[in-house]
Amino acid sequence: MKPISLTFVLFSTLLISSASFAQIPILNTYDTPQPKVVAPGLTSTENGVAAPSDAVILFDGKDLSEWNSKNGEPQWAVHDGIFTVTKGTGDIYTKKEFFDFQLHIEFMHPSDITGDGQMRGNSGVFLHGLYEIQVLENYNNENKTYVNGQAGAIYRQHPPLVNPLKKPGQWNSYDIIFTAPTFNADKTYRTNPRVTILLNGILIQNNAVIYGCTSDEKIYEQLKGGIRLQDHGCVVSYRNIWVREL
Ligand code: MG
């Protein structure tokens, strides 16, 4: 039998080894276009995080002109650069609608808060008006409730990864990165909505899959939507609300 040549062995090995690696797109370096320059908003312990230069400002401490309610102008109380739920007047929602976005919003429960379970500081931030990120007072897990109904839960779908909530009387912040869903012809999700959330700078939802509307568990064929804040019959205050469209 003819001996196999060393060249043949080397060539075959090279072919096999090159075939076993997946190809990645060729990475080039290039100089244009440069990323847009964005000036971050001022951050302070006292006043929270102001909007960066490219944000859509939804509340800057002055009025609720960017918001509506079912009965027309919102009846929630604007005072001292913040606004507070006026119980029984209903949810409020933004006039503007968004596809994918980064949302910053700060909330605080009153230091003299009462109530327990889901009636302790309940409100909510509804993305696209459909998907609720829960607002609740459950500092230090002292207010017992179901885990996917805690602050930072995607309501009744995913509990938060950890609980970094601050005490009543102190401001909390949500930084929310939302990817809108896409749809099949039969109105089911082609890709589900997804969300990443930081609560007080701590990751609590990591690119979590949202299964559908958190209120009625249905899928709505809706590509964009506003931000809705919930009146759940509890006193909760908000400030520094801004969106960066992605
Ligand atoms: Mg709620």
Please give a structural write-up.
With 246 residues, the protein is mainly beta. It has a single domain (35-245), classed as Jelly Rolls. It is 6% helix and 31% strand. It has one helix and 17 strands. It has one helix spanning 6-19; strands at residues 43-44, 48-49, 56-59, 67-69, 77-79, 82-84, 92-94, 101-108, 123-127, 131-135, 172-179, 182-183, 189-191, 194-199, 202-209, 227-229, 237-245. Strands 3, 5, 6, 8, 11, 14, 15 and 17 form an eight-stranded antiparallel sheet that branches. Strands 4-7-16-9-10 form a five-stranded antiparallel sheet, with no helix packed on it. Strand 14 and strand 15 (202-209) form a beta hairpin. The protein is globular. The model has no long low-confidence stretch (mean pLDDT 92). The structure holds magnesium ion. The site of magnesium ion (MG) has 8 residues, from strand 9 and strand 10.
Task: Please render the helix and strand layout as text.
Elements: H1 6-19, E1 43-44, E2 48-49, E3 56-59, E4 67-69, E5 77-79, E6 82-84, E7 92-94, E8 101-108, E9 123-127, E10 131-135, E11 172-179, E12 182-183, E13 189-191, E14 194-199, E15 202-209, E16 227-229, E17 237-245
Antiparallel strand pairs: 1-2, 3-17, 4-7, 5-6, 6-17, 7-16, 8-11, 8-17, 9-10, 9-16, 11-14, 12-13, 14-15
